[in-house]
Amino acid sequence: MRKSLFLFGLFLMLGGWISKSIPSDLLYYLDVKGQRKPVMNAADWQLKRKQIISGMEQVMGKLPSRQQLPPLNIIYLDSLKTAAYTRYNIRFTVAENEQLPAYLYVPQPKKQKQKRAAMLVLHGTGDAGKKLVDGESPLSNRAQAKELAQRGYVVIAPDYPSFGDLKDYDFTKDRYQSGTMKAIFNHMRCVDLLQARPEVDANRIGVIGHSLGGHNAMFVGAFDPRLKVIVASCGWTPFAYYNIGEEGSKRYGGRLGPWAQDRYMPLIRDKFNLDEKQIPFDFDEVIAALAPRAFFSNSPVNDTNFDVNGVKKGIQSASEVYRFLKAADNLQVRYPVAGHDFPTETRLQAYQFVDKILKHIPNSQELE
Prior knowledge:
The protein is α/β, with parallel strands linked by helices. The protein has helices at 2-21, 42-60, 144-150, 179-196, 212-223, 245-252, 267-270, 283-290, 308-324, 344-358; strands at 28-30, 36-38, 75-81, 85-95, 98-107, 116-122, 154-158, 200-210, 229-233, 294-298, 331-334. The chain has a nine-stranded mixed beta sheet with strand order 3-4-5-7-6-8-9-10-11, sandwiched between helices. The chain has a two-stranded antiparallel sheet with strand order 1-2. The longest helix has 20 residues, at 2-21. The model is unreliable at 1-22 (pLDDT under 50).
């Protein structure tokens, strides 16, 4: 009996050691012959990262060239001055015949020639678009743009195609294979605009978003290494865990149907048959592609959009990459007892994480 218990204990110990010593798929890449090879160093990781980006582009379409882009040609439509900042309603050029409406928040200067950190803020699903993050959402805890401006950040908050001032956007007539890639290109141009601002420190820029804005923050972060910190609230779970219920699945033609809308990634339906096993990327890979840069996820335990069990599995997988790159502290996740929301306490923790990464001293720690 004692021998059996000893052998059983030894088996459990060896099993645990083996599972910890064998890297996940995230720490393997394909060599030029298509053979799986373990990631052993930084050069190997860059190969793996390129393969993750390639998988995303197979679903989203190629990122258009960013060479020879036209001037931003910012048009100021109106402005609103507060004690903490001035909010400008702007439109600017992202590419030939492509204009992007956005709010631009510029804090009132405390010192001449003071360089500030900046944030790209992406709104969630809603007809109001960028107004949602300015405090005009019918839901609480959505005014990230306004709050970050009050903390002293320069902020840009664009409309996502088909919302806000882009409500009439026609996806069938643009040059992109997905609304997601159109958004990524737009958001990278927002970073261009921030870097061109004289009051912005070009090396201290991050991105934050809730829901629709959450996964789009992750997507632009994967494509744009200029973003030093990425915050996603209620924005993701692995595709295998995504489930909007039977009624929703029928409405959209399948469990992953919502992801395949024209405004998102229609190739998930047209090329990959709404089958997560065929889709050549997943969200743990997107997070890994951010590493070693800082990533913060707000993932409430009662979020019916994005299953927290999948989040925990994805974080466990991505954390191997962060540990490999000696950046474990740069991967942060919170699991508040809430639904599809960005609770005040968790939001403040996210802001404080951003402050730390971007070396920003906030004007105030208070939130409305």
